[in-house]
Amino acid sequence: xxxxxxxxxxLLCLGSLVIYWREWRKTRNRVKLGQACLAMFCSFLVLGMAxxxxxxxxxxxxxxxxxxxxxxxxxxxxxxxxxWFGERSYGFKEIPDVAYGxxxxxxxxxxxxxxxxxxxxxxxxxxxxxxxxxTRSDD
Length: 139
Known about the structure:
The protein is α+β, with helices and mostly antiparallel strands. The protein has 2 helices and 6 strands.
């Protein structure tokens, strides 16, 4: 859903660029030129991010793993954790601020990069579905 909203915002910025450019061509007002430049910068930025994210998802550079898991701290003393989904494990840098370990089972959703098998985001939910921890700032 967030990729669709990103494309929508990018297209709105592109539409505002067209409107401000037409207004500037009519009036030759510097303020309209500045607004057109700002709209061009914003549309380039947002559409660029949306394009890269869409490309990654189309080429399956992201893996999304869901299901029951447990979290184990790194044995090397570093500040990393490993999420275990049955026999598969994925490493993440963010340590949850809830009790975790092999005795604590969560309903997990994790997003990883395919090339490096490194974690991007994950969330831990209780078996009832209550959100306990998330690395995403918008949750």
